[in-house]
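Write out this protein's structure.
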Amino acid sequence: MKLLKFAAFFFAALFAGLLSAQDQQSSQKNPDRSYVGDYSDKPSEIMLVDAAANKERKVTLKSSSAKDFVFADSAGGELTVPKDTKTFHFAVHGGENWNRARAAFNRGNWNEALVYMRPVVYPLLQYTPFSEETFRVHGYVEMLITALLNDERLVEAEALVDALPLGDSPLIVPAALEVANALADAGKVESAMKIVNRVSLSADEPDNIAAYMKTLDRIRLRGVSKDLLMCYTKLSNMNGNPQKDVATLWMIYCDMSLGNNMSAQVYLSSLKVPQDSEEFSLSQMLKGMYKEVEKKIPDALDMYAEGIVFGKISSDWMPELLYKTGMAYKKSKNFVAANEIFLQINALYPNSVFAPKAKAEFVKIEKPKKTEDEE
C-alpha cells in the first residue's frame, strides 16, 4: 500500500513538472501581446476580511456604485459594503499558482513566473481603481509589471498599463513609469508620453514625483522638449513639491531648446540657486547655454566651468554639462581642451547618450612636422 501511495505521488509530481515545462514552452512560443482581453470576463475571488471579528470569506465583486460595493458570496447571497468602510478590507489568496509564481520570480525565471501570474493578476485589474488600503491588489500588479519588463515583454507591459487607472498609487505609479522608461529607451517616445500624461502627482507622494522626474529625464534625452515643457511647468507650480527648483530649471531648458530664449532669460534672472545646492551646476549650464545664444563663448565657458567645479559627478545632467563644455572649447578652436573633456565623458559616463556624441566630436590633432634643425 505504501509503495502504491509513493508511486501515485511520484507520477503526480512528474505530471506537475511536465505541465510546468509545457507552460514555460507555451510562454516562450507566444508572441509578446496584450493579455487583458483574455481575462476580462474571468471573475476573481477575493477574501472579505472582518478585522474586528477576525473572520474572512470568499466573495466575488458583482457591481459597484459611487458609494457601495456589491459582492456575491459562495452561498449565493449578496453583500453590500460601503466604499469608505473601516470595518472590512479585502485580501487576495493566490493559491498554488501564486506560490509557484513567487518561487519562479525569486529564481529569476520570468517566463515561468508569468505563466502562473497571469491567471491570478489579470482578473484583479477590476479592483485597481480602489485604494490599496481597501483592496490589497496593487502589489500583485507591481510584481507582474516587474516580471514583464525583466522578460522584455514590452507590448504586454504597455497594454497592461493602458488598462490601469494611474492615480497616485505608491506601488502602481512607479511601476508604470518603469514601463514608460523602457518605452523611451526603445525609441517609443509617444507611448512613453502617453503614460506620463496619465499620471496624477501629489506633493504627498514624493517618491512618485522622483520617479516621474526620472522618466522625464529619459524622454528628454531622446531629444524631446515641446511635450515635456507642460510637464515641467506643472511640477514647477506644484506647492510642496520637493523638486520644484529642478523642475523649473528643466522648464527653462525646454524653453531654450524650443528657441524661447527671452522667456528663459526672464526665469533665469529671477531664479536664485544657492552655490552649495546640487541644482547650482544645472543653473550654470543653462546660463552658459544662454551665453552661447548671445555668441559669447568665453562667458559660456566660465559658466560651464563653475558648474563643473561646484557640481557633483553623480548629477544626472553632468554628462550633458561636460559635453556642452567640450563643444564650447571646440567652437573656440581649443581642440586639446575639447578632446580632454570628450575623453572624460567616455571614461566617466560610458553608458550615457553623450558618450557616443563626444566620441564623434573628438578632433584628430596632427603634430607639426619637425624642421631639419629640430631633427
